[in-house]
Design goal:
The protein has two domains: 148 residues, Regulatory protein AraC (Jelly Rolls); 111 residues, Orthogonal Bundle (Arc Repressor Mutant, subunit A), CATH 1.10.10.60. Helix 1 packs across helix 3 and helix 2 runs antiparallel to helix 3. It is elongated. Strand 2 and strand 3 form a beta hairpin. It has 281 residues and is α+β, with helices and mostly antiparallel strands.
Length: 281
């Protein structure tokens, strides 16, 4: 449902975290207000301005905005917006995670924004918010702890995105390739085709492959293989099981796995396992 006014949140639930999604109508209007909790706001669609008492910050689709507790503010739409918002009390975060949270707050203070423009990270955020809204709605056993854990997953994701930003190369193609590398690092065990990646990035196979090679020094297939071999080595260290490690890393052909492993590591999987075993004795 398109809203003419913002969702009213007067207090947080016992978990200290509330996920909301607000889709605005053409007539959306909001008064300046104060909320006693922090907000992570993702502009899923639309453009507008985040107004403070003495300053403002323009935003567009894909931008991430952090808002401190007890700071007067309001959103003004230029085009109708859809906002995905995490309202939270930082005291609800696990103590072991607060240092990372503080680093994110420090690196992305109010008045600055982080832009998630590439399709890979955009889709990841979309799925994260969707999953948390469902978790919050279902309220199954342990859902509060799940929301807290997932919040820190998002905080970690955003902080890594901040660190990966390079103002000297923040063009569309550069951000697409950086996002693709991040996507591959999280999905290399799945079946991935260059054609599907090109389609998702709205680039031709040739253009995506060229930009990827220019920015990383490797082809997309080489990067996927490198990630799979590294993961297979870690699994071999833990399990000593060659077939299991190969399939777990995304290889569907054992003969091919042996050839690629020998090429990258310099020894066969059997020799690698033997060397690990002898070092452990």
């Amino acid at each position: 449902m398109k809203r003419d006014t913002p969702i009213i949140v007067r207090a947080l639930p016992d978990s200290g975290i509330l996920y909301i999604k607000s889709s605005h109508s053409d007539n959306f209007s909001m008064d300046m207000g104060i909320w006693p909790f922090r907000k992570i706001c993702w502009i899923e669609a639309g453009t507008g301005t985040l107004e403070f008492e003495n300053s403002s910050l323009s935003f567009t689709q894909g931008d991430i905005l952090l808002i401190d507790a007890d700071i007067p503010h309001k959103f003004i739409d230029v085009t109708p917006c859809t906002l995905a918002i995490i309202c939270y009390d930082e005291n609800a975060l696990p103590s072991s995670s607060r240092s990372l949270h503080e680093q994110l707050i420090s690196s992305l203070p109010m008045g600055k924004k982080l832009t998630i423009s590439d399709p890979w990270r955009w889709n990841y955020l979309h799925q994260q918010f969707k999953a948390n809204l469902i978790e919050q709605s279902n309220k199954h056993v342990g859902y509060s702890e799940m929301l807290k854990a997932n919040l820190m997953t998002i905080v970690t994701f955003l902080y890594r995105a901040v660190l990966s930003q390079d103002s000297n190369s923040a063009n569309d193609k550069s951000m697409i390739i950086k996002g693709l590398v991040n996507y591959l690092e999280r999905n290399f065990v799945n079946d991935i085709s260059v054609e599907d990646l090109a389609d998702m990035s709205k680039l031709s196979v040739r253009s995506l492959s060229r930009h990827f090679k220019e920015q990383t020094g490797k082809t997309i297939v080489q990067k996927i293989t490198e990630l799979r071999i590294h993961y297979a080595c870690e699994r071999l260290k833990e399990t000593k099981q060659i077939t299991f490690s190969a399939f777990d890393a995304g290889f569907n052909d054992i003969s091919f796995f042996y050839r690629v492993f020998k090429k990258h590591v310099g020894v066969t999987p059997k020799q690698y396992v033997k060397s690990i075993t002898s070092m452990e004795q």
